[in-house]
Write a structure and sequence with these properties.
By secondary structure, the protein is an alpha+beta fold. 56% of the residues lie in helices and 17% in strands. It binds adenosine-5'-diphosphate (ADP).
């Protein structure tokens, strides 16, 4: 069980993060403790030096005020007072002859400062040195100073005690590194696990979705804003993919349904022509019907593909500067013959010289689809008005008619694919025009809305960025 857990964790980001966290934390701690150790050794040495200097100055002033015998007596008193093997006193004559010494057996053989006696080195006020003696693992800190007229006093303190104390401290630091490393690794592990948990939630959700649970979403509540954004974006992506999946399924159903009727019709006409003893003109009529039905089918399939591409955001765009009003005027001219047939008046309300950057082809399709519907769903002697209103960053294209209007029941569905209002069944159409308009408008980052009153008319407003 534990082995299995270790195998799973091996090579994970949490382990790598914890390891590097522990390494960096331990190295930083080691550096800080080393600096601390260095400071302590310097301070310890300074204290010893101060002790030596004070002792020397005290004895020097004493000798300045008293005679030689009193100095020796004072030294003896000092030795008795110190009661320690760690300090020694030696008094030399200027030629190096030892005039007085305390018991220095504990220090081993301490060399005399010959460089001072043979004149190679001249003591100014005092001289502090660290000397080592054979058979002694600890060095001695000594001070040399001229006392009286020419005598040289040497005082030495063994560094045994201070070094031992620093050694303990050093060992403590090194041993401390082990629990520190383990502690840092544990903290790093828990911190990285907590940070990565959000990513694991997303992975788990992705696994479940792959297994077919398309409704699975990640719980977005979390303290870290980056993880929250990841989860939200993941959920949004799945929503979008699910939406596309549903619309693709709907589209396949619709295609299957809407292809069946024209194909059945084509087959019926061909069968009847074959079974009956048809004349040449009947064959010609069948061929013409077949061509017409095929054209309708091709147009429908092309429209469906255009809608799908626009909805998926992969349609081609050719952005160019468009004279919007010119485009609308041309579309009106195109529909004028049909409108005239129904005695419908087409009026325009267009500002002058309005230029817009966009995809001309798609804008043409948007305008012609809306115009075609307005004429189609307006009875004889009606009015259709197309206006363009430029606002701050948007331009509104408004198509208004006083036709049959749209019922409250139909209104929420008119942009759905293949949806046709009840009252529109008598008119030609397959229910794809508005779906295409909506897909194109949204593809061009615009917006479309509609207001309509049955038997009074409809207003379609397309707002495009400009
Ligand atoms: P089609 O016109 O081929 O039926 P559309 O997608 O263009 O398909 O329109 C969908 C439905 O919206 C129509 O069947 C009709 O009921 C309604 N509609 C669209 N435009 C208008 C309009 N200007 N006036 C009234 N109804 C409309």
């Amino acid at each position: 069980m534990l082995f299995e857990m270790i195998r799973k964790l091996k090579g994970t980001l949490s382990i790598k993060l914890s390891f590097w966290y522990a390494v960096i934390f331990s190295l930083t701690s080691l550096l800080i403790l080393t600096i601390f150790y260095q400071r302590i050794s310097v301070i310890t040495m300074k204290n010893i030096d101060q002790e030596l200097t004070e002792e020397l100055e005290e004895l020097s002033s004493f000798y300045a005020e008293n005679d030689y015998d009193s100095l020796i007596q004072e030294l003896q008193t000092e030795i008795e007072f110190e009661k320690s093997d760690d300090i020694f006193f030696r008094l030399f004559a200027s030629d190096g002859k030892v005039l007085f010494t305390s018991n220095i057996q504990a220090f081993g053989k301490i060399e005399a400062p010959d460089d001072v006696f043979d004149g190679k080195y001249k003591i100014e006020r005092f001289e502090i040195r660290t000397i080592s003696t054979p058979n002694q693992s600890f060095p001695i800190r000594t001070i040399l100073g001229v006392v009286g007229t020419s005598e040289i006093l040497q005082i030495g303190i063994s560094l045994k005690e201070s070094r031992a104390y620093l050694q303990i401290f050093k060992r403590l630091i090194l041993w401390l590194m082990i629990p520190l490393f383990v502690l840092a690794a544990c903290i790093g592990f828990f911190m990285s696990r907590a940070a990565i948990r959000g990513v694991e939630d997303v992975t788990q959700a992705a696994i479940e979705i792959t297994e077919g649970k398309y409704d699975k979403r990640v719980e977005t509540k979390t303290k870290a804003s980056e993880i929250q954004r990841l989860k939200q974006t993941f959920n949004m992506m799945i929503d979008r993919l699910q939406g596309l999946l549903i619309s693709m399924r709907e589209m396949t159903d619709n295609i299957a349904h809407d292809l069946r009727s024209p194909l059945t019709r084509i087959r019926g006409i061909a069968e009847m022509t074959l079974l009956g003893k048809s004349s040449k003109s009947q064959y010609e009529k069948m061929a013409a019907n077949t061509i017409e039905e095929c054209d309708n089918l091709i147009a429908m399939i092309n429209t469906m593909l255009d809608i799908s591409e626009a909805e998926a955001g992969v349609a081609d765009v050719r952005v160019e500067e468009i004279d919007l009003c010119g485009l609308i005027v041309n579309a009106c001219e195109l529909f004028r013959p049909i409108a005239n047939e129904k005695q419908i008046r087409i009026n325009t309300n267009l500002p002058e010289g309005l230029k817009l950057n966009g995809d001309k082809n798609k804008l043409q399709r948007i305008v012609t689809n809306l115009l075609e519907n307005a004429i189609k769903y307006t009875p004889r002697d009606g009015d259709v008005v197309i206006s363009v209103v430029a606002r701050k960053n948007l331009v509104d294209i408004i198509v208004k008619d006083n036709g049959i209007g749209i019922s409250e029941n139909d209104l929420p569905h008119i942009f759905d694919r293949f949806y046709r209002g009840d009252k529109s069944r008598s008119q030609t159409g397959i229910g794809l025009g508005l779906s295409q308009v909506k897909a194109f408008v949204e593809f061009l980052k615009g917006n479309i809305c509609v207001t309509s009153t049955p038997n009074k008319g409809s207003i379609f407003t397309v707002s495009m960025p400009y």
